[in-house]
Amino acid sequence: MGAALKPIRQIDNNANVYPLIWLDYTVNRSRQHINDQKLIRSTIDHLKTFENANKCELYIRSISKDERVILIVSDKLARDIIPRIHALRQVSSIYIYCLDKSINEQWIKQYKKVKDIVTQPNQLIDRIRLERSRRTQNQTNEILPTSIFQTNTYYEQSNNNFNNDFIYSQLLIDALLQLRPMKNERNKLILLCKERYKDVHSELRLIQEFEKNYTSDKAIYWYMKDSFIYQIFNKALRTQNIDLLFLFRFFIHDIRQGILQNPCMSPIRVYRSQLMTKVEINLLENSIGRLISINSFFSTYIHREFVLMILNQSSSSNDLEQVVFEIDANPELNSTKPFGFIRPNNCFQQIEEVLFTLGSTFRLTKIHRQSNGLWIVQLSLCQDNDEQMNKIFQSFKETDNHNKIHVISFGNFLTKLGRLDQAEKFLTRLLHELPNNHKIIADCYYELGCIEMKKNVYDYSLNLHRKSLEMKLKILQDNDLSIADSYNSIAQIYMRKSDYKQAFLSYYQGLIITIQANGEDHLNVAVCYTNLAGICQKQDDYAGALEYYQRALNIRQQHLSIDQSDLGVSHNNIAIIYSCLGLCDLALEHYHMSLRILQNTLPPLHPEIAVCYCGLGLVYEQKGQLKRALSCYDKTVIIYRQALSSTHPHVIQIEAHIKKISPKQNNNVV
């Protein structure tokens, strides 16, 4: 699990990490070594060579801690570099390649990652191949992509990278599981693998075997096999390479189907061993009761003794702690992401194994350290209708099936994160893959229209929203709020284009539908009135703006208590209009009501409070009461300086205005 307990970060998926590194003074000069290189590259994997220990160390340190590399090193350089890099998570194992084995046997005993001292190239290749073939069974020091949900409230959730990673991973995995694989994806994946391993003859033979003989019932066999599939698929999961994961959809669906063929029928306890840093242990200790998403297929064993044996045989270093996960799972509580028994591919171990579906979610119930230093982490599989999970994903659920996350939700969440290009690419992919009559096609066009509006491409955004609206009008009821959303979005585009007439007409259509759907006194209707008032205000129609703002306030006063900020915003809007009409006393009355509500409902340095102080200052200045005006402006600038950057236009404007009127106040103009 290791470093994957930290938030997942997007990395350069094209960066080539060489799984084998060879350090030797003569690695590129000795004829024998050059021939050995060709043999390694053609039979095992890609290889990177170094003649300088410092450059080799710098390269290893530059690799992500999520990667694992094997180092081959000459005995002349081994004593120099091994002490410096032995503790690095990137280093999986080390082989000393030399002529004399005996002189190195004593000093390497303190370094657990040194697997062997070899004198022949074929012996080296056989040892590395043997280790690699066991990797799928012994994943103790392998990365398991994981994310933890840290808080419960949506405000905290939307401002927390851990939680964003959790939601991102769950929505991506749900999309992969819901969308049917495309017919040509397997062929595209095979072509990609052939290019990736074009110089590795052993892998090319496996790719050809996969191309010729793969069937859906062999998916788990290929997943458990140390090969190109295991390597590329797991890296795609670690790095969340969306394009590559979509090529693997057929594989993901086939593995899930394979799990369903041999499911666990009763509650079970299984085990998983890991090596983890103290920082990662501390993160777990602070996450008791939280949700943990395992963002890969999660391999576990039913025998605790076997897990402990694997853990004791694993390469380790002083900065890593030994951890055993104890997982309780009840098949009756989880149906969308099942778990089941699988058979091992080889004779290295015959212990029964249990595989959990990609994206399974667990609750961390307990963590403690035994007297022997072993950490025990207890997890329980979450049920489909877990209360906290439902709260987290409530806004992403389909209306006709409350237990299913909408497939389009991943694109929406990418947009919320500001990853507009990724969101656009994902939604465009959906448009190409879904049948023309699919019910979410209109939603795809709507979300794409919202993305283009964020990019300030207004005409294209308008076309997309009109296309979405046209489809919605054909397939939805007349009072469906989704149609109102389209009208409101179209109005926003017209507002940005300064076409206030069309903006008003579209907002008005949205108002009519919202009243039909919710009634005249619903809070959503108050939002519609606020939108119409904003257009009137833009056109200096203050009487019209005041009427609509007052209607919005009347509705909110029926529903909202004095401790809700929307009520304060309504009073602020009305105060602005009274100020524009020159009715200063009425403006001050509503500004003060707004300020009292906002101060009781928002953090002290919230920008909305600064807006209210600024409005008060303008009214006092309008009345010639500059001392009071300056006092309000000072409070405004204090908040703006805390909430905004020093170069933000609001900060610059208010500071300039204070500088402008300060001399007048100093001349006793009150």
What attributes characterize this protein structure?
16 strands, alpha/beta, 4 domains, Serine Threonine Protein Phosphatase 5, Tetratricopeptide repeat, 55% helix, 670 residues, Rossmann fold, Toxin ADP-ribosyltransferase, Chain A, domain 1
Could you characterize the architecture of this molecule?
The longest helix has 19 residues, at about 500-520. The relative contact order is 0.06. The chain contains 28 helices and 16 strands. With about 675 residues, it is α/β, with parallel strands linked by helices. It folds into 4 domains: about 1-135, Rossmann fold (3-Layer(aba) Sandwich); about 140-385, Toxin ADP-ribosyltransferase, Chain A, domain 1; about 405-475, Alpha Horseshoe (Serine Threonine Protein Phosphatase 5, Tetratricopeptide repeat), CATH 1.25.40.10; about 585-670, Serine Threonine Protein Phosphatase 5, Tetratricopeptide repeat. Keywords: Repeat, TPR repeat. It holds the Pfam family TPR_12. InterPro entries: TPR-like_helical_dom_sf, TPR_rpt.
